[in-house]
Write a structure and sequence with these properties.
Blueprint lengths: L8 E3 L25 H15 L2 E3 L5 E4 L4 E4 L4 E4 L2 E3 L3 E3 L12 E2 L2 H4 L7 E5 L3 H11 L4 E5 L9 H9 L3 E4 L4 E5 L6 E4 L4 E3 L2 E4 L3 E3 L8 E3 L5 E4 L4 E3 L11 H21 L1
Parallel strand pairs: 1-2, 6-19, 8-15, 9-10, 9-15, 10-11
Antiparallel strand pairs: 3-4, 4-5, 7-16, 12-13, 13-14, 17-18
Bound molecules: flavin-adenine dinucleotide.
């Protein structure tokens, strides 16, 4: 947008980088295989500032429609802007059990599954995303133990049937993971009944919390809080906050590029 003659102000939250900084290695982004998330964030940030964007490390606490445009409030400032691109992301939900911070615990099979080719892994969760993650891993890992807390799946019958017939998959219904075991890396999981299962990776697939609350007045939200669409002219949305199914940098970047083009057209017409 800076190159289109505007002065983009980026409210980047309290720290730079977003979810990228939570992972050592980013894959599935063309041209930068195996780059660390922190390095990728630095490159993106430098590109944005070199192009003319101003970055401030503040969190939007409220966005209200003004005429014209919007007022974006943070704890220290009010910014009056003619348009907003909202891309606040979504945070993977955590189990809240000991060992969850160990290397080897992931919330993204598409991102990290490759690291466990030929190794035993566990998936924790009982919804559609857990079933999809388990199916994805079943083609890579030596075995996939799936731990479903409830007595019934919340995934589609088709996905469950595929899992049930896959020779690498073992499904454990009504089974709670109490602890993720390991000193420096994951070695297994301990279940509620005290038994242990040896695995090298644990994929936690119990959903995500979209950071959509400050956008609620200007968007239509799905039941789970993700943004279905913007309902206000001049308010654009992009990235993980819009969809739990396509959590990838390439998608967020593509969404962001579309939002920037739409915002540029909007600003040129108003
Ligand atoms: C462990 C892990 C590994 C991954 N590996 C890969 C991979 O290998 N390849 C790949 O393509 N993808 C990977 N991903 C997914 C990728 O990181 C995300 O899809 C991508 O970062 C989404 O970008 P985003 O900008 O939509 O959201 P985010 O990266 O979450 O950025 C959102 C930003 O908005 C800020 N924010 C939130 N609320 C506010 C507010 N109120 N005001 C101001 N700022 C706010 C946040 O602090 C954050 O900086 C991985 C994700 C995880 C968790």
């Amino acid at each position: 947008m800076a190159r289109a003659g505007f002065k983009p102000l980026v409210l980047a939250g309290l720290a730079p980088g977003g979810l990228l900084t939570t992972t050592e290695e980013i894959d599935n982004y063309i041209g930068m295989p195996g780059t660390s998330g922190g390095h990728m964030a630095e490159i993106f940030l430098k590109h944005a500032t070199d192009a003319g964007a101003t970055i401030v490390y503040e969190e939007a606490t409220r966005i209200t429609a003004a005429s014209p445009g919007f007022t974006v409030e943070t704890s220290s400032e009010n910014y009056d802007v003619p348009a907003v691109i909202f891309a606040a992301g979504a945070n993977p939900k955590k189990l809240g059990v000991p060992g969850e911070e160990l290397p080897g615990v992931s919330s993204c099979a598409t991102c990290d599954g490759m690291f466990y080719s030929g190794d035993p892994v566990a998936v924790v969760g009982g919804g559609e995303s857990a079933a999809e993650e388990a199916l994805y891993l079943a083609n890579l890992a030596s075995s996939v133990d799936v731990f479903v807390r409830g007595a019934a799946w919340r995934a589609t019958a088709t996905a469950v049937a595929k899992l049930e017939e896959h020779p690498a998959v073992r499904i454990h219904m009504a089974t709670v993971v109490d602890t993720i075991l390991g000193e420096d890396e994951v070695t297994g999981v301990r279940l509620h009944d005290g038994s242990e299962v040896e695995v090298k990776g644990v994929f936690v697939a119990i959903g995500q919390t979209p950071n959509s609350s400050v956008a609620a007045d200007h968007t239509l939200l799905y039941e789970d809080g993700f943004i279905e669409e913007s309902t206000v002219p001049g308010f654009f949305v992009a990235g993980d906050v819009t969809n739990p199914s396509y959590r990838q940098v390439a998608i967020a970047v593509g969404d962001g590029a579309k939002a920037a083009l739409d915002a540029t057209t909007f600003l040129n017409l108003h």
